[in-house]
Amino acid sequence: MSWFKRVEKGIVTPTEQKKETPDGLWYKCPECKTVATMAEHKRLLYTCAKCNHHDRIDSAEYFEILFDGGEFTELDAALTSGDPLRFVDTKAYPQRLAATQKATGLTDAVRSAHGQLHGQDLVVACMDFKFIGGSMGSVVGEKIARAIDYARQHRIPFLMISKSGGARMMEAGYSLMQMAKTSARLAMLSEAGIPYISMLTDPTTGGVTASFAMLGDFNIAEPGALIGFAGPRVIKETIGKDLPKDFQSAEFVLEHGFLDFIVDRKQLKQQLADLLTMLQPAAIAAPETAPARRHQ
Ligand SMILES: [Zn+2]
After folding, report:
1. CB 271 within 8 A of CB 117
2. Residue 234 and residue 105 share a domain
3. C-alpha 249 – ligand 1 centre gap (Å)
């Protein structure tokens, strides 16, 4: 006879008596494995208390963090994509869109809004990575272009928060056209003397890096964000050399002169407010619209 004998077979606790750990109560940092409560994690704006790892967050969280009282007016909320190429991969594109819309509650991979940040008007367009990898199709490009137009017409600074895998393959050429369209609108914004701040978050790659994300009057990033054009494997195979450590991290990109500064999410709102205050006179009093000063 063995030294251990199971008296009863299998697990005998009835399902209704099992104690479940409630979902979403704890957060474990993927970098340093520190565990915190979700409430604490949220209080720190989804950054790790120990290693300062910045968790990926969505437009809903950024709008909540940035806009005063979490209040804003969403722009072009109803815009959705067609299927110009009748594209099919493992699913037909319209089916993929419908399933993603249902799962995420979003209409596409970017949301734009007008609100106030410490009392200053600001138009923000923010990408959502959970919507087909934050990929840029015609709706993403169009919503960004319209948000830029709105900012230009109302003479309000524009903030773009990028988080994207690049162009959306299901719209192929139509996706690539968005690079030119958004860049052209930004040039018009610049001519009107309206400030544009581009914030790159983890990850910002492909056609997004190659267009609007790198065209800010200020290009800023979150710590540790992956920022690049092509992926490291493709580059390594192309140049036939090993890549340096931390290649394509925000810190590496900053050191090589492509970013103005890296901002901790906990200081983001205040730093943006300071930057907007500094830039504001240009937006309010562009030369052609400035009222004539009276001298007495
Ligand atoms: Zn951590």
Report:
1. no
2. yes
3. 17
The parent domain of residue 48 ranges over: 22-55
Indicate whether 28 and 136 sit together in one domain. Answer: no
Q: Binning pLDDT at 50, 70 and 90, where does residue 132 land?
A: very high
Q: What is the pLDDT of residues 159-197, one digit of tens each?
A: 999 999 999 999 999 999 999 999 999 999 999 999 999
Domain match, 41 and 113 both? no
**Residue 33 CA to ligand 1 centre (angstroms):** 6
48 is in an annotated binding site: yes
CA of 245 to the centre of ligand 1 (A): 20
* Residue 29 annotated as lining a ligand binding site: yes
Split into its structural domains, the chain has a count of 2
pTM metric for this prediction: 0.87
Query: Is pLDDT above 50 for 88?
Result: yes
**Which CATH number covers residue 104?**
3.90.226.10
Q: Kindly state whether residue 33 falls inside one of the protein's structural domains.
A: yes
The set of long-range contacts for 254-263, using a CB threshold of 8 Å and a minimum separation of 24, is 254/221, 258/214, 258/219, 258/227, 259/200, 259/219, 259/220, 259/221, 259/227, 260/218, 260/219, 260/220, 261/218, 261/220, 262/220, 262/221, 262/222, 262/223, 263/199, 263/220, 263/221, 263/222
At residue 4, the pLDDT reads 72
pLDDT exceeds 90 at position 9: no
Verify that 127 and 168 share a domain, yes or no.
yes
